[in-house]
Amino acid sequence: MFMMFSKLVILILLSSSLLRLAATQDLGFTYNGFRSQNLSLEGIAEFTPNGVLVLTNGTTQNIGHAFYPYPINFKNSSNTSFSFSTAFIFAIVTGSPDLSGHGIAFVIAPTKGLPGALPSQYIGLFNKTNDGNPTNRVVAVELDTIQSLEFNDIDHNHVGIDINGLHSKVAKPAGYYANNNDLFQNLSLASGHPMQVWVDYDGVERLINVTLAPAKVQKPTTPLLSFNYDLSPVINETMYVGFSSSTGSVITRHYLLGWSFKMNGQAQGLDLSQLPKLPRIGPKQTSRVLTIGLPVICVVLVLAVVSVTVYYVTRKRKFAEVLEDWELDYGPHRFKYKDLYIATNGFRDGELLGIGGFGRVYRGVLPTSKIEIAVKRVSHESRQGLKEFVAEIVSIGRLRHRNLVQLLGYCRRKGELLLVYDYMPNGSLDKFLYDQPRFTLNWSQRFRVIKGVASGLLYLHEEWEQVVVHRDVKASNVLLDGEFNGRLGDFGLARLYQHGTVPQTTHVVGTVGYLAPEHTRTGKATASTDVYAFGAFLLEVACGRRPIEPQAPAEYLILVDWVFACWSGGDILQAVDLNLGTNYVPEEVELVLMLGLLCSHSEPVARPTMRQVVQYLEDDIPLPEFKSLGITATGLTFAHYEGFDDFAISYTSSVGKAFSQTSSSVAESLLSGGR
User: Fold this and answer.
1) Which whole number is the average pLDDT over 427-442?
2) Which domain holds residue 457?
């Protein structure tokens, strides 16, 4: 009797599972708005009272996830993925028309939410460790407003199909093909206007189609993306579907107004009349009604025209800018002087952050977006090379890396150029190292900064579309964000050239103590001269001393010689910054000091590349033996530095105050012909 009862229970459970499976295979759902809908939310995602799904709410560096709460069967018994179709309407609203944050992605994933995912460029999908890992089993369609690193001709505002990582298999600029004439119409994803996306996968043809259009436009017959790809090896038998979005340093809001999905069929069309309205950003505008007679109106208008004319003539002179035809192509990279003037309270001394080799730097808050910025005022009295310089500034503004200070754009006015950067609240690294600082960084923080700057330089040298030579790597140009992460900044001297070519610059720029010997002889800045400067930077971070101390005794004058002498004497840790006390990891400090000597080798061929430097710092790869590089502890000094020593000593003699608390740069002008 008991056995019969057990068999009956098993049959009931089996039948229930089969029925559930059959229902899942043809599952479909439609949300015309999200009023009391049962979705699984994660991060900062939430519903508004009128049914808008808010994935990100205007905060920075955050993630929002929203997933259908139940797993969906995506494969049949032969392990072949089913066909599916989905449609959704979204909107991206940014705080400034000149800037945009990160995007939104439709996601098919093995779990609700993506463990370990990061914001900013990872769009809440992956992180540095698992990006591109085949075990992710994630399929995504990204609608991103930031640069597409894998497609050189697509720098922002693009749609891409991602498989297990953010390097899209295929991507195109956002837009659609109009049905009446099949002409391509561009769309701005961050325009704040609702847009509709259709994603269709044919499991038989193994074809993914992605279509984009304004919300009120019918589905175009020609898709934006059409990509042959078999999803069967990528996805599991059961998966979750939903959306992921994230923000970076720019205030951005991501909204979803409606969503439909269908397995083995066409997703139901969304009813636009039932969709909720987007939330209003800012106060409601009130209208004014004229209640006075026509004669009075005429008098007031005449007086107003005169007053406004005088006012605007005065303001025009005050905020007059230099604008030439060739700058019109740079669009959002150019800021209005008026906005920067307001942001910095008229460039008052109270907003002054510091004075560098080429100008003053002010803190500011953009009036519209409320984003904190740093504005550097640079003289450009010489017009030689100005057009090429601004072109390079705009190109550098496209760099995206977590360890680089973001160059947001520029402005030109009369005899000066204004460069606009992300604001770094903890200032420059050098103030935590020198002159008995009230607060110094511990070794763990310093080592993290070193590895971050190395990663940023590797990106500049090898991982961007062009080679970027920074030409002024030093502690005062490394800025610290709110968590004391190091970010390499001040690209005022940077040079760009194509991979595989040789730079032709013959003008020496940079800071004494960080200049490679061959740079002072030939004037050519290369990735290898950046490595030399990075070597000097490693030593100053570990030792808490500048590369050259003219007031110090002769044996301490040049930092690299002193560290080399400590190594020759068998105790390289003698060079460690006394402010660290004994609270450091000896193996890590010794690695940094030895790597600093290696990067500071006088022969460029003996220096490592930044990729090798990152491997030494991150992967526990042993450094090469110094003997193999012709470096021994038996010589009188680090002999191959003699030419550099002569140059440094002669420079201190002639300049006098060149090595005061702020280093001077060896350059006549930022915009001289040598750039």
Assistant:
1) 87
2) 429-655
